[in-house]
Amino acid sequence: MRYISTRGRAPALDFRGATLAGLASDGGLYLPDAWPTLSQDEIAGLGGLSYVDTAVAVMAPFVGDALTREELRDLCEHAYGRFAHDAVTPLVQLDHQHWLLELFHGPTLAFKDVALQLLGLLFEKFLHGSGDHLTIIGATSGDTGSAAIDAVAGREGIHIFMLHPAGRVSDVQRRQMTTVRAPNVHNIAIEGDFDQAQALVKAMFADSDFAGRFRLSAVNSINWARLMAQVVYYFHAAVRLGAPHRPVAFSVPTGNFGDVFAGYVASRMGLPVERLIVATNVNDILHRALSEGDYSQGSVVPTATPSMDIQVSSNFERLLFDLGGRTSLADQMAGFEATRAMRLTNSQREGAARLFSSARIDADGMARAMAWACERAGQLIDPHSAIGLAAAREAAGIDPATPIVTLATAHPAKFPDAVERATGQRPRLPSRIGNLFDREESYATLPAEIGAIEAFVAERATPRG
């Protein structure tokens, strides 16, 4: 298995190389050079497997010869052994058609754990014995940071620098990052929004002098290995609802497009996905792109769903590349980066319309979905999951016999104020989180300027040997 860049100017890499690199050297994102497929019989055979066994079956074709099957299984057993539910990602029925896929049973209570617990182990495995030091640079709108920090805290040969927008993540999200006291963990609150944080990360990778001094890698969903791990739960859920003998639709609360792109990959591998519903909040660049072909950046509006307060969705580039015949996106993306506006081509729009639909859900729609889930199904859900559920419940054109699965991306206790306003009930943090609000925080506050960020990293990271 080889990995190629969406911009066509970076060398092809194997799975190990793509995992350690994160972002391609030409600024593009890595994708497999061809999609592996599973037959109907192979998909049906997943129905009786554990989550770990499903993960091995789904991910092995992407890993190639970078790991043996036994090594991959050991990593998966270690990664998912830390989850609080034996099913890892259990399904919960809401009514005759709607289901929740609970992705928040990992150590930091968010779906990012499913991928990042494995990614941290992959980094350690691939670095072992090499003498290399890895400098992880990441940006978070809430959950990626805490999940990534938990996954690599204390691991030898790794330093992690996580940028978050100051004042724009929840108290729980921030504290899950800033109370981790490990010498290789560095938190940075930038005076700006998530899009600026994400742009700073990409700028550091693109700075040849800086990238030449340190071995940089990424934990954001620009890292292919993270997306690969997320493909697994689409298969795991769908076979339990009748796949491959009946299709399943998924509704995905979406910011950076990584989680829903994993569903697209599952579809390309042969899973019968009826529809992927892209659910956005009022920061609706993806809704406008899919419904009107208008991928134009607006101003970020802070909401009760901070992980979705994004106006540049990095992983959308992967979809456009695949839908456009896999020709280089270098010119198209350069135009977008220069003007912050782009029109999708006809082939991109037509390709997306075959599988994707979208919905823009405002604060009232989000609150109604939380209230409905509580009153009618006895479920407290977080605001992001509520955006997905609202979009699922208003989706048109899906056969009533087709299950619609909403991805529940975070534990409701990460956003207790919003949940309480909508339902009258205040969710409690699970006991395994411990005394989060009694721990001392540690982070730096810096301007959203590349020079300030690079100087901070350079003082603390280990240069290349």
TrEMBL record:
The modification N6-(pyridoxal phosphate)lysine is found at residue 112. The keyword Cytoplasm does not apply. InterPro entries: Ser/Thr_deHydtase_PyrdxlP-BS, Thr_synth_N, Thr_synth_N_sf, Thr_synthase-like, Threonine_Synthase, TrpB-like_PALP, TrpB-like_PALP_sf. Gene3D superfamilies: 3.40.50.1100, Threonine synthase, N-terminal domain. Residues 87-342 form the Tryptophan synthase beta chain-like PALP domain. It catalyses: O-phospho-L-homoserine + H2O = L-threonine + phosphate. The keyword Iron-sulfur does not apply. GO terms for molecular function: pyridoxal phosphate binding; threonine synthase activity. It holds the Pfam family Thr_synth_N. One of its GO terms (biological process) is threonine biosynthetic process. Residues 2-80 form the Threonine synthase N-terminal domain. Keywords: Amino-acid biosynthesis, Lyase, Pyridoxal phosphate, Threonine biosynthesis. Pathway: Amino-acid biosynthesis; L-threonine biosynthesis; L-threonine from L-aspartate: step 5/5. Its cofactor is pyridoxal 5'-phosphate. It comes from the Bacteria. PROSITE patterns: DEHYDRATASE_SER_THR. Belongs to the threonine synthase family. NCBIfam families: thrC. This is Threonine synthase. It comes from Sphingomonas gilva.
